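Subject: design request, 401 residues
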């Protein structure tokens, strides 16, 4: 029996070989969410640009708050007031710049204005209800560092410092080939006995789209050595990475692995992972190649655990993250396995914390086990689990959207 590579070792090896894309493109801000920032961004301005009021109310000198003060000016947002004359207060609105001389704002609910005079209930302290200039961002500060995925809040942050465009890494081109004579494209007709619809192509294209990567459709590839070689070579010439599904196991009809060895090299094959053991990684010429298994659940698991972090690193992301939590198992694992099991489970919040319920059918061909679950429970090789034990879980939302 050949030795199976532990998941962590395989991942480390795969990541070590990743050569991140260097080309950048400038995108309008609204096209940039989900892309990887290619440069550190330094703010040219303070945000906010002025000390300003956090409330609708009255701006005054805190030391004069005990007196009834004439209202000497009105400062709505967007208007710059004049210096506050001693012994007076200014009517002011949220976001409006504080007039020079004022050192506090009292919210209008705590003030009474009558005949142009305002009096304040309660003590007032210097600085109260004032948002100081630069409290969000100081001019000259690095607001975002390269190598992060731009999230909606980052796009807003870039807008707040006046950027209309942002430099991101060129989206990776990823070719997907579905191998198998039994495959039929959904929507193209009914199945004959022995056939099945090509679901992997759709799972993979959607996973790539969720990562903002460009999907290059390599179509269905027949189980034939020459056809496989041609398809692999063509895909490698057009893509930054080639992903196949199926044809990497040990059967006579599994041609992918042999053809990759002919066209380039196989770096690793067969992982201690369940499902997904036959996963292969290598290069076709200089183009990295990931051979996913054929079974739909294995495709999902191995994409998420190995291909996803690899592609994100190729795309320029510094640290691909996937949050790991702990949950109480609502199941038993009596027999220790030889592979790390990514069990499909449903997490629910209970009074005793997170609880993981195991999906009834864990077969690698049962794709509904992924659709009907919301997390993987990671069961390391050689371990058993008793109900109530804490197990590590990875929410699927953190892996696939
Ligand atoms: P293979 O590794 O090629 O023997 O494939 C393993 C299993 O996955 C077989 O039952 C295949 O029919 C199935 N399979 C392979 N490719 C796909 C695909 N693109 N969509 C759905 N099932 C597939
Ligand atoms: Mg096959």
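Subject: RE: design request

Done. Sequence follows.
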């Amino acid at each position: 029996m050949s030795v199976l590579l532990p998941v962590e070792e395989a991942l480390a090896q795969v990541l070590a070989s990743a050569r991140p894309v260097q080309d950048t493109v400038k995108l309008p801000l609204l096209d940039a969410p989900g892309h990887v920032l290619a440069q550190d961004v330094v703010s040219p301005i303070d945000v906010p640009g002025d000390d300003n009021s956090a409330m609708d109310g009255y701006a005054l000198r805190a030391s004069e708050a005990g007196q009834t003060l004439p209202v000497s000016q009105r400062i709505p947002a967007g208007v710059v007031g004049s210096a506050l004359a001693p012994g007076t207060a200014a009517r002011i609105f949220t976001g409006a710049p504080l007039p020079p001389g004022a050192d506090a704002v009292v919210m209008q609910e705590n003030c009474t204005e009558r005949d142009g005079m305002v009096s304040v209930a309660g003590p007032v302290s210097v600085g109260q209800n004032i948002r100081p200039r630069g409290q969000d961002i100081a001019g000259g500060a690095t607001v975002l560092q390269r190598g992060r995925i731009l999230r909606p809040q980052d796009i807003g942050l870039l807008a707040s410092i006046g950027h209309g465009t942002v430099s991101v890494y060129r989206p990776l081109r990823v070719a997907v080939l579905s191998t198998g004579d039994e495959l039929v494209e959904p929507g193209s007709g009914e199945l004959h006995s022995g056939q099945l619809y090509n679901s992997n192509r759709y799972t993979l294209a959607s996973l790539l789209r969720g990562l903002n990567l460009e999907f290059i459709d390599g179509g269905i590839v027949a189980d034939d050595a020459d056809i496989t070689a041609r398809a692999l070579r063509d895909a490698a010439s057009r893509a930054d990475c080639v992903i196949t599904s199926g044809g990497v196991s040990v059967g006579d009809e599994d041609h992918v692995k042999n053809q990759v060895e002919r066209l380039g090299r196989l770096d690793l094959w067969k992982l201690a992972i369940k499902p997904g053991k036959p996963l292969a990684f290598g290069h076709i010429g200089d183009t990295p190649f990931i051979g996913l298994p054929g079974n739909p659940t294995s495709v999902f698991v191995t994409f998420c655990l190995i291909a996803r972090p690899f592609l994100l690193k190729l795309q320029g992301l510094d640290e691909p993250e996937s949050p790991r939590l702990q949950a109480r198992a609502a199941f038993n694992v009596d027999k220790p396995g030889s592979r790390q099991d990514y069990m499909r489970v449903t997490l629910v919040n209970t009074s005793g914390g997170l609880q993981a319920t195991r999906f009834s059918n864990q077969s690698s061909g049962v794709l509904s086990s992924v659709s009907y679950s919301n997390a993987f429970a990671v069961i390391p090789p050689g371990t058993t689990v008793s109900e109530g034990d804490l197990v590590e879980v990875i929410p699927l939302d953190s892996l696939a959207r």
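Residues 184 and 197 are 5 Å apart (CA to CA).
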